[in-house]
Amino acid sequence: MTAPILVVRNLHVRFPVKRGFFGRTVGHVRAVDGVDLTIRPGETLGLVGESGCGKTTLGRSIARIITPTSGEILYRDAAGADVDLATAPNYELRELQRQVRVVFQDPFSSLNPRMTLLQIVGEPLRNHGVATGSELEDRVAGMLQRVGLSPKYLHRYPHAFSGGERQRVNIARALILEPRLVIADEPVSALDVSVRAQILNLLRDLQDEFGLTYLFISHDLSVVESVCDRVAVMYLGRLVEVADTGDLYTRPRHPYTEALLSAVPRPDPRLRDSGRRIRLADDLPDPADPPPGCTFHTRCRYAVAGTCDVPGGAPVLAQTAHGHRAACLRTNELDLAGIEPDPV
Amino acid sequence: MTDLTSPAPLHEPGPPPEPPPAATEAAEERPKGTASQRSLVWWRFKQHRLAMAGLIVTGFIYLVAVFAGFLAPFSSSTFNADYTYAPPQRLHIVDRSGGDWDWGLFVHGYRSVVDDETLELTFEIDESQKIDVGLFVKGDEYEIFGLIPWDRHLIGPTNPDDPMYLLGGTRTGHDLLSRMIHGTTVSMSIGLVGVAMAFVLGVTLGGVSGYVGGKTDLAIQRLVEFFMSVPSIPLWLGLAAALPPDWGSMQRYFAITTILAVIAWTDLARVVRGRFLSLRNEEFVTSARLDGSSRRRVIFRHMMPSFSSHLIASVTLSIPGMILAETSLSFLGLGLQAPVVSWGVLLQDAQNIRAMATAPWLLLPGLCVIVAVLALNFVGDGLRDAADPYKR
Hints:
heterodimer, A: 344 residues, Rossmann fold, 12 strands, 23% strand, B: 392 residues, MetI-like fold, four-stranded antiparallel beta sheet, 4 strands, transmembrane (chain B), membrane (chain B), transport (chain B), OppC_N (chain B)
């Protein structure tokens, strides 16, 4: 197995909760609460979870948009040296941010409406002193072509484009610096279903072409199934299950994953009512005051009092099968339903 | 795929991009997708009829302000004590008194009449007297832009000593028209200079407040609230009364402007802060930082253009307030003092009811204020509506 490109160790991100006139800190929201994660070069790792579980915060800490509270984010650069992104000083970070790039979720707010495509996509090249003048224009034009936009759009402004086209611009901006790791933060969730597939295919093609590694953040399990090699499931700031995509979808080892999978729409009408639909209680517990024991026990249908809600007895992510890890106290007792592979 | 040491080159030159649209192409014919923000704003602004009218009037007023010395028949200090409260004369183009058509500009002279009952001295137009008026006549010396000395005036009596009061005379026998034109320079420039000062203060403090946030924001916002809570007229009065009386007119002018700016910056600071706060969390600002832009570049290149048009609009909207403030201060006698003339100083003459009854034309500077303020407000409104051409 090749050495991982990114190793996240015991990462914590806490946001202070402030109240009152003087902004007194009354508590902390544990957005990311002790995450361990490994990304191997060339793979696409999916990060899934419901809204508010901290998956975007995790992605943003890796890109150092947010400075993590504690923990390590070890990035192995092209020369093979490990750098800790969590503590890298600004001058080093600037260089690292060339190699780790982000594709944002919202194609409308992530492009500056006052700049042309040439300016937007060329900005990283310009700032890093890679290219200027006509060379910069040539490179931007070439990149636009790679993502499927005509170079004649160079001097247009973003408002002239559709959501899918804007997302292509976003991808072009992320890739123009020849990064190694791309954090795609829900890159397709703001797009029409018809455009989604095009963008996913584009991402896949570009991965093959440039040897990219993706951290693919999404809440859409069908999208994740189609693009990811491995999937990490996140709940309330923690990883609850990490496994290869096929393995996770057919044999989930965590009740939360099972519930998520049961909500995936089945395209085949004959299968529509075959699976059990598991409904979770609507309320995600307050991340500033997580429940004791297993944080999922408040919504888990397999939770057993005295086992799952013991303070201090939180489950850790443990190996259950080869390459399959889950954080559930009862994982070996349960027989959880996954999704049957689509009959061909 | 895992060969990371030699990533595929990303910049294989594709077909060369098409050249940018030729500069000779008319702006309107370019596709909308390539139009710059400025042209989009201008297109939107042009559709606003009232704003266009306001722009023309404002432009005209500023032209008058710049070329005041040339446009005014007399200098602001020229007066003739024999003609106090002289009524307005009509400017004639043709003289038919001789029976035939005698072309040429002229006005009639005055005849003084003593009222039998009140023994008050009033003036009447004497149609038998004819004072020739010419264009580009020699008159009082002045300096264009304060630099080039000249003595030609657009209009004036051929003999500079003849009385000509197209809009009437003041209590001291000054020509009201000339004084109003000279007052335009002062009144309109005080708006600009004051707003410029307020702009610097407001943008700096508001920008720091919004971009830095936290405790700094808290402190600056409390300061703004303090300034907003002080009633402005008493504060102006207090500050203006504190000015040393022996200051020259220029010093006084700048002191008054500063006083006005000290109060006017708060609105602008709020606007700028709000914009910074809302933009700070926009993803395109985050991505600009990730793209390696320096903090300076993020602020000036990525954030500022997004609200520069809003800034221009709110600056335009604050000029009328400045003009009104100066007018009210001067009207109350605490603003600018003679020999400097502004519309407010001129309106001082219209303070008592008897002067207004005998010489109602003394209210004309008030009309100037109204026209200028309305025009600027229309322009500001139009700019505000056009400021964001991307929103429909």
